[in-house]
Automatic annotation (TrEMBL):
One of its GO terms (molecular function) is acyltransferase activity. It holds the Pfam family HGSNAT_cat. Residues 20-174 form the Heparan-alpha-glucosaminide N-acetyltransferase catalytic domain. InterPro entries: HGSNAT_cat (IPR012429). This is Acyltransferase family protein. It comes from Larkinella bovis. The keyword Transmembrane applies.
Length: 381
């Protein structure tokens, strides 16, 4: 990692550096703050429905967060790699992908470092794979080819999941344990899957294909934003593309249901459509109309997104290693002790206590990140 000092004292149209839209950093920051919120409730047994994932088919606001981030990765690629002829880009892309994958593997290993059952898939490994694939595709193809690849990935994935028989189970199906993706994960990864499910993984191998399509949709959005069209045209096209994507999502949902764990093609269209509209709104308000004052807290999250995601996952694990003795002779982790001491007694509803714990965690990180932002500290992978 390296430290950069590139944040200007006052925001102009663009934020950090010369090729980063303030609206994009804001959108990224909102997404990362939401990710930290839903990943760190005070009590996993008491979370409000919108802050949890859909059990299987369907979606909640929480299901939008990860695909929004991958969409933003795609937009960022179109800016960061616009000088396609620059030497050494492929090496840098591969290096960054390996670091992201390694960070994800480290989180899954910590603190036991049991390589025999460590979960190999995960959020950071999927980000790494999507970043690698989308970056190389962006460098080597045209916008038309990228659009075609999105169609191929989504239609191809639909055909695989709904028509190809599942070995040892029979006809194609979309059930959690017997779909083609789950079978492939068990076959290739064995015990290295999500511990909660054990026999399938929400960031599995096959569903990475449509996740790449999510990243490519972000690349197309970034290409539009870099074009010579007027600001009004860019905003309108983003919004129209979002509407068309949503229409396609709900048509496809009739025979390939929206499902985050399977990352179905209809889910890609739904989340990309909403991401396009959210980006259009941020771009129009922030970069075109100039409403920027409110963006600073979110930009603080956005410019250090991977750093805060990694550390917000690591620190609770470290706290759980610290054991605090209880009156009954048992002991609990420091994270649980803090929650039981400073939140549970002050809220009648366990759901409110859990939400307050999550919001406090986000607030603590905001203070840390805002200080870093003010001191112009950006940690880039």
């Amino acid at each position: 990692m390296k430290q950069l000092s590139l944040i200007p004292k006052k925001h102009g149209l663009k934020s950090v550096g010369t090729n980063r839209l303030l609206s994009l950093d804001t959108f990224r920051g909102i997404t990362v703050a939401a990710m930290i919120l839903v990943n760190n409730p005070g009590d996993w047994g008491h979370i409000y429905a919108p802050l949890g994932h859909a059990k299987w088919h369907g979606w909640t606001p929480t299901d939008l967060i990860f695909p929004f981030f991958l969409f933003i990765v795609g937009v960022s690629i179109s800016y960061a790699l616009q000088n396609k002829e620059k030497t050494g880009l492929v090496g840098k892309i591969v290096k960054r992908s390996l670091i992201l994958f390694g960070l994800g593997l480290f989180l899954n290993l910590f603190p036991k470092f049991d390589f025999s059952t460590v979960r190999i898939p995960g959020v950071l490994p999927r980000i790494a794979l999507v970043y690698l694939a989308c970056s190389l595709i962006y460098l080597k193809t045209t916008t038309r080819t990228q659009s075609g690849l999105i169609a191929i990935l989504l239609v191809g994935y639909w055909l695989l999941m709904t028509f190809v028989p599942v070995p040892a189970f029979g006809p194609a199906n979309l059930d959690p344990e017997t779909n083609l993706g789950a079978w492939l994960d068990r076959t290739l990864l064995g015990e290295h899957l999500w511990k909660t499910a054990k026999v399938w993984d929400p960031e599995g191998l096959l569903s990475t294909l449509p996740a790449i399509a999510t990243g490519l949709s972000g690349i197309l959005a970034g290409t539009l934003l870099k074009s010579n069209r007027s600001e009004a045209e860019k905003t309108a096209w983003l919004f129209v593309a979002g509407c068309l994507s949503l229409l396609g999502a709900y048509i496809w949902n009739g025979f390939f249901p929206i499902n985050k764990s399977l990352w179905t093609s209809s889910f890609v269209l739904l989340t990309s459509g909403l991401a396009l509209q959210a980006l259009a709104l941020c771009y129009w308000l922030i970069d075109v109309q100039g409403y920027r004052r409110w963006t600073r807290p979110f930009v603080a999250f956005g410019v250090n997104a991977i750093t805060v995601f990694f550390l917000s996952g690591l620190i609770p694990r470290i706290l759980n290693l610290i054991r605090v003795a209880q009156p009954d002779g048992t002991d609990i982790g420091a994270k649980e002790w803090l929650y039981q001491t400073f939140f549970v007694p002050y809220f009648e509803s366990p759901y409110n206590a859990s939400l307050a714990g999550a919001l406090t965690f986000v607030l603590i990180w905001f203070i840390i990140l805002y200080v870093m932002y003010q001191k112009k500290i950006i940690i880039k992978v």
